[in-house]
Design goal:
This protein has four helices and nine strands, in the order E-E-H-E-E-E-E-E-E-H-H-E-H. The chain is an alpha+beta fold.
């Protein structure tokens, strides 16, 4: 999908927007799996949220501006590690100064200091972007109790990674017994290194969409 206006950034979601003081937007989300999310994205980056601000953009549309500090650039046009860049998301989860509150339900509510693997769709002509599949394409990444980084989709790992978990998207013969055990539970947070491998492998290969959807081929 190549959005060419601000409303296209929500992808396959159905958007209902309510205007006025303390109003809100809602969505009916279509579940998407990892291969679809990668196919829809144009950039993938592990980044820390360095700043969050809410403001009207130049078109007087309520917007969320995220300043992201790159930790690990997977693919797409991205700055080097340690550098920052800004993205603009349509809507804001807070009331604007004039009392308007409008947002796309399903868009994660980001906070400064959090770290995510972002699967970002292409920017619209008005500069809006979002994560592919909204909550499904944003993976919160935290340090694990036993060391290393672990990732969990905001939309839920079972829905995002499939009933078989991350193992569906990896060659199990290439994993150690410890790694296979770590991804056995489709609901648990997964090692970031293995999620990264699955995402980059899918991007390089050109992911095939699920047969049930009646689509196939590569991105």
């Amino acid at each position: 999908m190549r959005p060419n206006s601000w409303f296209a950034v929500v992808g396959s979601a159905l958007v209902i927007v309510l205007l006025g003081p303390a109003a809100f937007g809602t969505t009916l989300l279509q579940q998407q799996e990892l291969s679809e999310l990668v196919a829809e994205s144009r950039r993938a980056v592990l980044a820390e949220v360095a700043n969050v601000r809410y403001a009207y953009d130049e078109h007087h549309l309520p917007s969320t501006y995220l300043t992201l500090r790159v930790n690990d650039a997977l693919y797409g046009d991205l700055p080097a590690s340690g550098e920052t860049f800004e993205i603009k998301i349509y809507g804001a989860p807070v009331a604007m100064p004039d009392g308007l509150q409008l947002f796309i339900s399903g868009t994660p509510h980001y906070r400064r200091g959090e770290r995510y693997l972002f699967l970002l769709i292409e920017e619209s002509r008005w500069g809006f972007t979002n994560t592919a599949g909204l909550p499904f394409g944003a993976f919160r990444v935290k340090s694990g109790a036993a060391g290393g980084l672990r990732a969990a989709s905001v939309g839920g790992n079972r829905l995002t990674l499939g009933q078989d978990g991350l193992g569906r998207w990896l060659d199990l013969d290439e994993l150690t017994s410890v790694e296979r055990a770590e991804i056995a539970d489709p609901t648990a947070a997964v090692p970031y290194t293995l999620l990264r491998r699955a995402v980059t492998d899918l991007w390089t290969a050109g992911p095939v969409l699920p047969q049930a959807a009646g689509t196939g081929g590569s991105r």
